[in-house]
Write the structure tokens for this entry.
Amino acid sequence: MGGFGSGAWTRYGARQTLDSLRRIEITFLKKIGVLNSSASGTLSWTRNGESNGLINYQIHPAYIELNFNFRRGDREEWQPVKQRINFDTTACNFGGVRHWFLCPNCYQRVGVLCQGDKLFLCRHCCKVAYSSQNESGLDRLNSRKDKIAKKIFEDYHNGRGWLKKKGMHQKMFDLLYVQYRQLEYQSFVMQEDMFDRVQRCF
């Protein structure tokens, strides 16, 4: 893996799968120790050992700022792009916090963003699918998680919910909330495993 993540330089109009796109992974930021810092620098993507583009970044306490050039096809002019991506955190069961990206389009907490076109967004907003055979299992898991969340949260939208539903007994809420958090963690672990497998292909 080079830089934030591996992946091919996006070909506009080509059939897109997650492992063919540039990706930014929160686990990689954590691995290189730049979260909760003011680090800046230039990272690169590689594919089959070949350089496949560069990107400048600046880490801020609550977000990461990306600066890069983009064009669609060989006939268009390169245009500079500046994109801000906010961070979010959730508490871990045994202390500490887990970091996430907030998708700039739908504001869902995700561990990976990909460049389906000009900007880096979650895979749902980029309308791309996992090429891994585990995709159906992950989708089923997220579907179960979302089903529980809609039962217990007053306002649940795109993977985010905070307030207990009015009229729900606290004991029932606590029981379902534990199940929700377990499914959320399983989803996160499954995504990490899937991306680890993809990265070993590059």
Notes: The chain is about 30% helix and 30% strand. The mean pLDDT is 77. The first strand starts at residue 23 and ends at 25. Residues 18-129 form one domain.
